[in-house]
Structure formats: structure tokens, C-alpha cells
Amino acid sequence: MSWRGSLLTLLFLAYVGFFTTLLLWGNLSEEIDRRTEWGLDLAYITFMPLIGYLMDSTTFRYRREDSYSRKLAEWQTLPIGVSQIIAGRFMLYLLVLFVNTILYFGAQYALLAELRELIGYGGLVSYMLTWFGYGAAVGALMIYMELGYSGRIYFRFCIVYLVIIGLGTLLLAAFGHCLVFDSIEAAANRHWGPAAGMLAIAALSIGGFGALLHRRINRRSFWT
Hints:
Elements (H helix, E strand, L loop, with lengths): L1 H27 L8 H14 L6 H9 L1 H10 L5 H30 L1 H6 L2 H28 L2 H24 L4 H10 L4 H27 L5
Helix pairs in contact: 1-2, 1-5, 2-7, 2-8, 3-4, 3-8, 5-7, 5-10, 7-9, 7-10
């Protein structure tokens, strides 16, 4: 059944890719008012962690059926340790995120001549790694909540996270900042600092939340 999850993931990637690439083109070509830049930030900050997920049926039923907890309880019955469960979950997430990041930014670079004029191949790598690092950092937190708590608590966390994203995006716009264009500008100027910084944050996030998740799973009860 996993091919269906892969297909749904690619369809989701194509959906967000179409609209965000169109919005980016509009801003780069000045066909759209630059005051809409906040929409790019909102889209990137929201969907980058999500493209690390394979959208199988459990993705849509976790709140009602607590499917992630059920899956974790089933894994606990197998002859593998908690460390292997956590490592496997992170490895799957990072693999899917890496592949989808290449597909998304590669297609965007191929389609937008305006973007190619700003950044070369080296800049493209910097641009991709910056957002890959962000997705991996936030994804580590999401995996911690996914496996560490019940579906209802995970759902509430996602609502709070979306509110924080929305408010943060509006705050950045109020101060005249756009993270997407900041990352493009850094890539155009061959500044690898943002990419290196985000990758370092991602590594710390994965290590930190991985350790917290190990402790959390060992203390979880699956009787309720």
C-alpha cells in the first residue's frame, strides 16, 4: 500500500509547488505587488516540514484513531529497541524530505528564468540546504510530538504551531522581512552562512529531540 502514500505525497508536492512557484515568479518579475511576500514565507514555513511525510492513511486518521500511538505500540512488540525505532523514523523522514526538496527546488529552478539569473548552481544548493535544514529541524519536533504523545495532543500542538507560524509571518512582514527572499539573496551572494546555520540547527534538533523522545517512549503507557 505504500505506493499510494508516495503518490499522494507527490501530488501534494506538485500542488504546493505550483502555487508557491507562481507566487515566487510574480514577485521576482514584479507582476505581483511585493506586499504579498508574506504569503511565500507562510507557505514555505508551513509546507517544508510536511514534505518529509509519506501521506498514508494514518496521516489523516491520527486524531480519531490515535494511529501513531498504535503503530508505536506494535513496533514495541518487535525484537528491536527504542533507539532503532527512533533512528528508523528519523531516517525515513530525512530521506523523504531530501528527495522532495530536490524535486521541489529543482523544478522551481528549471521553470523560473528570473531565479536562474539570480543564483547559479552553487546558489541553488545553498538555497535548497537552507530550507532542507529548516524542514529537518521542525520535523524533529513534529516526530517527537507524533511518537511521544497521543493523537489528540499532537493535533492540538499542530493547531498551536500554525497560529505561531501565522503570527510570526505577519510580524516579519511588519518589519519588512521575507525569509524566502533573504535566503535567495544569500544564495545569490554565495553566502553559505544561512545554509550552514540551518543544517547545524537541524543536527542539534534531531539529536536533542531524539534523546527526549527516547526517554518519553520508555515512560509512555500504551494501555489507554
